[in-house]
Amino acid sequence: QEEMLKLALDLYKSDLLVWQFLLENQKVQRKWNELVKYGNEALELYPTDAEVYYYGGLGYLKLQDYTKSLELLSTGRDLVIEDQELLSQFYSSLGSVYLKTDNWSECEKSCEQALIQNPDNATGLNNYAYYLALKKVQLDKALGIIQYAVSMQPNNAIYLDTFGFVLFQKKQYQ
User: With a threshold of 0.90, does the pTM exceed it?
Assistant: First the structure.
């Protein structure tokens, strides 16, 4: 599939949809260096496309370049038009950047905003619950949040791990 996407990109370099498919493929395969590389190339062609900024910002987040991630995610967030799901993804990723850069108040605001935009953003729910548990604050809220995420995806090992972590932080060992 990746080879086909690269071939399609060679043939249709000016087609935004091809770029978005390629970027999504890199994300799914967790190829963060390639995501950043292709994201930067796509930004040169599509400097006003919010989704391209999201992919680039996510790639930089995963590569721990928080300054560049924050720059791209903040810019891209401001370009989103009438797409609450995408806006929720931006805010959730910004929450992660702020956590990693020890800015708890902005992390919390971003996580809350992610859930306002899309209350069913399971990844956003999981991350926020984990961050609350990590900080050992609002543990009842964290429990409610992660229970909702698990109810949507009961077999998701990451969400179940967060659920266990929240219970551990609440000292509910049974």
Answer: yes
